[in-house]
Amino acid sequence: MILTGPEIAAAVRDGRIRITDYTDAQVNPNSYNVRLGDTLTVYAEEIIDPHRDNTTCTRHIGADGYVLQPGELYLGHTVEEVGSDAFVPLLFGRSSVGRLGLFVEITAPIGDIGFHGQWTLMLSPVRPLKVYAGMKIGQIMFFLSVGPVSLYSGKYQSTCGPQPSRYWHDAKPTVAR
């Protein structure tokens, strides 16, 4: 079951959902709008290797915005810190942003129960697209979980700003047969 907007607001008030900085104006009928932070991270190397820590570069979104280019993966972040120990959060791009040709969080929209922090956004434009810090970029929905809950305590807990992949922390080389 998905939480409605009024239930999201109630859950924030009673502590079942934590959103910093929460405002009623960002509550939708069944989601909460999140805004784009002012920092982007891009991979600096031509080939990204999941079995090692890859070099990244940081870009700042100034007051005049920042133009995203097709063929590049940008890691952004939400302004808001969002999490819950009671509900499963899912983050999707807003339809108005998708209609501008920006893919947001296509491959990894699900958050873990117990994660709290800024969300890293995977941004990929179809054409050159200017983005602005603070623009509404996505929406988080909250779903009721069923069964015993094991709270998230992984490598991205309490993150601030865009986080590159830490896949290599857990990666084990495989042998082709």
From TrEMBL:
<keyword id="KW-0546">Nucleotide metabolism</keyword>
<dbReference type="GO" id="GO:0008829">
    <property type="term" value="F:dCTP deaminase activity"/>
</dbReference>
<dbReference type="InterPro" id="IPR011962">
    <property type="entry name" value="dCTP_deaminase"/>
</dbReference>
<protein>
    <submittedName>
        <fullName>dCTP deaminase</fullName>
        <ecNumber>3.5.4.13</ecNumber>
    </submittedName>
</protein>
<keyword id="KW-0378">Hydrolase</keyword>
<dbReference type="InterPro" id="IPR036157">
    <property type="entry name" value="dUTPase-like_sf"/>
</dbReference>
<dbReference type="InterPro" id="IPR033704">
    <property type="entry name" value="dUTPase_trimeric"/>
</dbReference>
<dbReference type="Pfam" id="PF22769">
    <property type="entry name" value="DCD"/>
</dbReference>
